[in-house]
Structures are given as C-alpha cells and as structure tokens.
Amino acid sequence: MLLHTCIRRCPGGNVSGTAGRADRAEDGATPRPPGRPDLAAAPRGRGPVVAALMMGMALVALDGTIVATAVPQIVGDLGGLSVFSWLFSGYLLAVTVTLPVYGKLCDTFGRKPVLIAGTVLFLIGSLLCAAAWSMPSLIAFRIVQGLGGGALQGTVQTLAADLYPLKERPRIQARLSTVWATSSVAGPALGGLLAGYADWRWIFLVNLPVGGLALWLIVRHLVEPARARTKVRVDWPGALAIFTTGTLLLTALVQGGVAWPWLSAPSLALFGGAAVLMAVTVLIERRAAEPIIPGWVWRRRTIAAVNLSLGALGLLMAAPTVFLPTYAQSVLGLGPIAAGFVLSAMTLSWPISAAFSNRVYSRVGFRLTAVTGMTLAVLVLLAFPLLPYPGEPWQPALIMLLLGAGLGLFQLPLIVGVQSTVPWSERGTTTASVLFCRQVGQSLGAALFGAIANAVLATRLTEGGLDDPGTLTPTAVDAAVEYVYVGAAAAGALAIVVLLTLAPRRFPVLTDDDRPA
Question: Is there a contact between 503 and 301 (Cβ–Cβ < 8 Å)?
Fold first, then answer.
C-alpha cells in the first residue's frame, strides 16, 4: 500500500500534530517536485530489512579499521611496507568519493537496486582481497571494496529514513550509530585476533557470510513502491568529474605530510589539479539535465547549513579518533587494548544521547538541539588541556563519555531533520551530500591536526635539544594532543556559528501521516 504524503511546515521542527496544507518552499529553494510516497513497511515487516541494514553498516565500519592491527602479518606475507598505508587510504577514498554518485542513483533508480549492487561489489572486493597475491593487488581490491562500501553507507542511511516516520527515526538512527561506533572500535581487536590466531585473509573472508545474509534479506524482504516507467538520464560525465576531483583532493589530504611534505611538488600538483577539476565539475553540473550534485543542495539554507556543520563534525572527530590512542599509550602508559577502551567510552554515551534527542528536538526544534549538543562538546574539548599530568585513565575516558553525549545530541537531529525536509526523490542525494561532507571533514581534520601535532612536537624537540624523534617524551605528546583538542573545539565552535547564522530556526519539515497499518 502506498503512502499519501501531506506536507506542512512544523514549527521548530516539531514532529507532532496533524498534517496541514503544503507550505511554501524554503528560501532560496527551487520549486520542489512532488516526492514519491515513502517506503514504509508495517512494523512487523521491517525487522528483516533493518537487520540487513545494520549488518551492512557493520561491514562498512568494520572494514575501515580491521586491517590496522594485521599490517605486520600482511606485510610479512606480501611485502610492500612502503605503500601499506594505501590499504586504509584507498578504501577511505573509494567510499567517500562515490557517496554523491550513489545518492543520485538512489533517487533515480530506487534504493533496492543500488543497495544490492553495492553489497555484491563489496563482497566481490572482499573475496578478491582474501585472494590477493601482492600488496598492489590487495590495495586495488581494497578500492573495489570501498566502491561497494560507498553504496552501502549512503543507501543504508537513506533507507532508514524511508522505513520510519519522523517520530520513530531517532530509534533506528541510534541503532545504526551504535553499530557503526561499536564496529569501528572493535575492528582493530578483531583484525589482530584473526591475523594472530588464524590468517590475515580471514579478515576479508568473514565478510562473506554476513554480507551474504544481508543480501538475501534485502532481496527477499525489501519491497519498494512501484515506479512509473520514465526515461532515465544519468549524468555520467558529472559522476566521473566528481569522482576524479574527490580522488585528487582526498589523496592530497590523506598523503600530504605523510608520504611527502605539504609544500612538495606532489602536494601542490594534487591540490592544483583538484582545484581545476572542481571548476570543470561545476560547469558540467550546471549544464546537466539531472546533475549528480544539484544546485539546490547548496541553495537551500537547511541543507547547506547541515552539510557545513557535519563537515565541521568530521574535522572535530579526527582529534579523538586519531590522537587519543597515542596519548593513552605514550602519556598514560596504557597498552593498545586499554587505550582502545578509553576511546570507546564515547560509543557508550553517543547512541543513548542520540536516542534521547527525540524528546528534545520535538520540543525546541532541530537547530537548538544541535547547538546545545555542540556547545556541550566544545566545553568538554576545552576541558581536556586542564587534565592533570600524567593523570589517571578514567579522566580522559570521562571526557570521551561526555563528548559522546554532546555529539549524539548534535549529529542525529541534523541528519533526521535534513532528511525530513526533502521528499523521497531528493532524500538519497541529500543524505549522500551530508555524509560526503562529514567524510571530507574527517580527512581534512586528520591532515590539519596532524600538522599541528607535528609542529608542537618539533618545537618541543628543539627546546629539549633532541634530534631523534624516537626520544620524544610523554610531556611533548601531552602538549601536542592538548593543542589538537583546542583545535577540535574551534571546529565545534565553527559548527555552532554556521547553525546560528545559516540554518533556519524552524526546519521546513515534510510530515507524512497516512502510513499503512
């Protein structure tokens, strides 16, 4: 049974009440086309699909980190120590640059075919990784994995919004956040266990039964409303331009300061090439009949504000995820597993706070809820430099617990809110743009904060009369991480400024009331 969608503007982003007549489009928006009715299974029929979505989310998150602790075994078997970092970078690049393309394909062809194709591609990439015979072949197959992972990450988030009405979306989004966080943190431990007690190839083979089950559940249980047969026009030149531009930009951010200096010829060539291709991409997208990244993504205040705010969130998140484990080991003297537990404290409070956010934004609106959450996060980040030296492990763990609570109040209302301002036909593109900005922000954060940390460490080396980086003292690491956390607080403050100045006080929510029983 298809849904009849009624559209109204909800004061303050409130999700309660009955539907009224359609209100005017948001300032700066083009007239919205009538959206296709949402996909909404009865509650008893959603279970298998939700289980498949959670498994797909777990696979993408797990494979982003699971290789980390297995590098010694992989290098020992295949060689290629000088290029092993591309095992991570190649996967991240492929996931990130394909998000906008898959988002548009979701809106064009439907969620199910894109999700099936992405899952199949991810599983093929996993099987090929397990059969890799050299480091270059493994890197190439990791990129294939990432091409499928981009489809999984964006489509899962879009389908979650399709399956649940606005009032219930925090529940499913909190579950997905829990799965993502838990899988990301558990990845290194699982990778180490498989590499140490079995074989590193099992890191990729374990994806096959989980992904196969998810694929079977999607094929069997996901039913989308029938589509009218129309001629489909896909902007393939735009897709290629976006893919190439994103690849050059992210390669420059990920490898700069690591594989080569920031002001070296490779960095300058990559950034220059990305700038030129970005201009070409804009020209292509302006002329395309159905652009991959439509202009309304940036013309509508709500979507533009959420994109920029979640880009700042990605920037902020690089601080704890990249530098806290080093701090825990170098300053607190913890082992790798205990250091992981300090970081994982954030994953305990984040989903709880996200699930609770529904009660907050239904009363005060999406924008104010997100501003409140990020304000808490900024205060927590600024408290990190005040920790005693060397301190106790519970102190940074408490910081991470409070940080997760603030970010749960920040991220989920923005994702739920922005998805609820667009019809079905624009939801995939909108969701993908948000995730893309967050991913790019995280890559930029790792590069920017890495440069800050290196500068502080170099200064401490000079002041201490040390020439060998291996002689770095815990005090130097402590100072570097403190500067990084202050930088992360600045990124959080930027997100608050963006929301207060750009986002409308009331999100123009589309409310659907006639859902099947």
Answer: yes
